[in-house]
Amino acid sequence: MNTNMNTKLNTKPINTKQTRNFLFSVGLVFLFSAGLVSPVKAAGASLYFSPSSGSYSVGQNFSINIKVNTDGAAINAAQSTVYFPSDKLKVVKVSKSNSIFSMWVKEPVYSNRNGTVVFGGGLPSPGYTGTNGRLLNITFQGKSPGQAKVYFEGEAILADDGRGTNIFSSSYGAVYSISKGPALPARPKVPIAPEVVSPTHPQIDRWYNNNNPEFKWDVPSGITGISSAFNQDFIFDPGPISEEIIDSRSYENTEDGIWYFHLKFRNREGWGEITHRKAQIDTQPPHAFEITVDNEGDNTNPSPLLYFEAEDDTSGINHYEIKIGEQDILTLIESRANPYKIPCQYPGIYDLEVKALDYAGNTVSAFSEIKIESIAVPEITVCPETFISGQEVLYMEGIALVNHDVIVFFEKDGKLVKKWETKSNENGYWSISEDGLFKSGKYIVSARARDDRGAISNPSEKRYVKVTLSGISVGPWVISYFSISLILFAFFLILLILLIYLFSKILRTRKTIEIETKDLKKKFYKEYNELCKDIERQLKMFRKAKQQRGLTKKEKDAEAELLKNLADIERVIKEELKDIEEI
Description:
By secondary structure, the protein is of the alpha+beta class. It contains 4 helices and 35 strands.
């Protein structure tokens, strides 16, 4: 590492003002990249490649650094696009290791197809001042012989002056020669920057209220030494003195602020690249603050303004939580607070708590009280004492302030059954009428007024209505007796039509069966007579043979069998015909 890179930078915990300045500058980087702001350039800082030239072979990997010269000014953001010939070179890796930047608006990305590397990053105040500030490391590989020209476009370098002034003045390209010759002897391979994780502070850009950070890493084979350090310098070399070979380290009771754990490995070729792992710690709550309740000179204002602002020295205020009485908690981001107009409230006195939370989750609460008086209460002047549900119209009227909304509540056993809304006329009179059905019982009627601001009055004096039914109650519904009569009449009418239809169908079916039975009888008798004639002819043949020569035993058995069959057929047919007639 060079002299400037080894110099300890006096990086202090970021306060609110520093954070705002940095975010302002980073925001300008984004605007530049989006083309929404045209930078006003001032003479000063420049970008360049190191080395700016070299000779390499096809297939050989070589690394170059993107560096910044601030020309004596302090900077905290820069961005650009690097162009390279995609037919001559290809990117193998882009590394942020050992960069002066700790935050990235545009994570470095490369495209070998388009021949570009795009980046945009920054660091907190007091920024960086120097001539040799490393931003990125790019590892190229030669693809084909020729001259490979690499250059910048879209450059912006922002000063750490609270305004994000663009002090970029120039950039310097590089030319690398790629040849067909044999690759140069490879440099000894020192260890790459180790990957460090933290189980206590897993996200590098998040604040934690744990001041006992722990860091872990894997130790690859061939490592002969480890060197580490833990401080608030975001770029730091822990030195050449080796510690014991371990895979974790923890620290206790660390002060609040942004800390960095620095780690590097050594093998037989020497010390490798350094990893700078960030951990942000904030264990202190925000400062105590007060709440001012402003009803804007009107005690009936249903949405008074709240003024409050908390401050936090380290991580800053993330959001507020507001609790009014027993209502749900309202969450506000810092930009929506001061003043905050609360949602419309009913008249009454409410306890108020505003809790400020910083980015590490530390909290502090402030307490106050909200008092809202009622606007003019409406009156109910007409309300029936009894009401027959299903036969009568429920009519009510009253008086309120002119052109006010009036909300009428109809309750039973502590539960809201119905709510009506109407509006008072230019004389303050209002009325409602309802012909719906309600269950029998004793109901409570009350009314509230509401003005254009959403302010709601206290409830009016209660009135009581006894409801009787002109029908029966089924669950939540009330069915009038007249409706029941209509339903029963329709049911019996449908039943009568159904019976008449079934009876007529039975008569038609019976008549059809009688006709079919007669036809069947005729067919049976016809077939029976034909069969009898056939058997009789055969018997005549046996009788004639008997008279002439006598019958053999076989012929006698056949004759007996025919007589028996004839008797059986006659018996069966008569029984079947009898069954058919009975059916």
